[in-house]
Design brief:
The chain is α/β, with parallel strands linked by helices. It is built from nine helices and nine strands.
């Protein structure tokens, strides 16, 4: 007796993101998914370097279906050439941050210049330094759409951690904060000019309303979307280094993303999954699901 198996059985075969082929050939690629297994920037509990493979593993359970976008967009039809680019930027020791940034930039730049959309799987929140610089090089000043419980706007003053990119990238001129949104914030710092939507206000809004506010602010500016998994309440994403209670559910945020269709998302990431603190892969599953939504937002611009 033979059975039809293959990619429908997520536990079998070599692990690639979503079951897409592993390749670094960028010819006619629609979306490249790249892992950056790096967490030397964490200020509290480390472990996010184990994130890319944990998210890859659960992604194969997720990508057999696409319920959130049914009737709106068929990802594989709009984007027939999606690749798992593999991992880059792994580094340790006293030069880890600079090594990660240098190596990862070469790959991110190549992917963005090829015309492909780039989705990076972290890794900690140091990672956006790299793809945001790469998209700035191609598109000029971009809007940052930043879902997080933290603002990450502490000036690095040269000592780069996962808490600085949203400040430094404005200072560098890569991000226009007046066109950008930080949402789900619940550890307030000084505001350096971003449109901030605090978590307590998010929790009072329907997801459609939050998406509408975001679209009004960003308009048609090219967007870099960074999704810290700790934007979700720890009940839905316990496997992360710096959890903060008081955030939305995974379904709520997926509905927000679904309602952001039309934004010009040129690249994005999902970061801060730390499988060591996870339970039953709940956080990796959430991250893989959100990754699918971000890819659909990217695909939507090609429709
Ligand atoms: Mn965070």
């Amino acid at each position: 007796m033979s059975q039809e198996t293959g990619h429908y059985l997520f536990y079998a075969g070599i692990n690639t993101f979503g079951g897409y082929k592993h390749s670094t050939d960028l010819e006619n690629v629609d979306i490249a998914v790249m892992g950056v297994p790096f967490d030397a920037g964490t200020t509290n509990r480390s472990g996010a370097k184990m994130g890319p493979n944990a998210v890859r593993n659960m992604s194969r359970l997720v990508f057999g279906f696409n319920y959130m976008w049914e009737g709106e967009l068929d990802l594989d039809e709009v984007c027939p050439n999606i690749i798992d680019y593999g991992d880059v930027g792994q580094a340790y020791g006293s030069t880890a941050v600079n090594s990660m940034i240098e190596e990862t930039f070469n790959h991110a730049d190549k992917i963005i210049q090829s015309g492909a959309k780039l989705l990076t799987i972290g890794g900690d929140h140091t990672i956006p330094y790299v793809p945001v610089r790469a998209v700035h090089k191609k598109y000029g000043k971009v809007a940052l759409l930043h879902f997080d419980s933290h603002q990450d706007t502490i000036p690095s003053n040269g000592i780069i951690s996962h808490a600085n990119f949203a400040y430094d990238l404005v200072e560098e001129g890569c991000v226009d904060p007046s066109k950008s949104v930080q949402a789900c914030i619940r550890t307030p710092l000084d505001n350096i000019g971003y449109n901030i939507i605090y978590s307590r206000d998010v929790m009072e809004m329907k997801p459609e309303e939050l998406a509408g506010k975001i679209k009004n602010i960003i308009g048609d500016t090219p967007v870099y979307l960074t999704f810290d998994v700790d934007s979700l309440d720890p009940a839905y994403a316990p496997g992360t280094g710096t959890p903060v209670v008081g955030g939305p559910s995974t379904h709520y945020m997926r509905t927000v993303l679904r309602n952001l269709a039309g934004l010009n998302v040129v690249a994005g990431d999902i970061v801060e999954v730390s499988p060591q603190y996870d339970h039953a892969d709940i956080t990796a599953l959430a991250a893989a699901s959100v990754a699918q939504d971000i890819m659909c937002l990217m695909a939507h611009t090609k429709k």
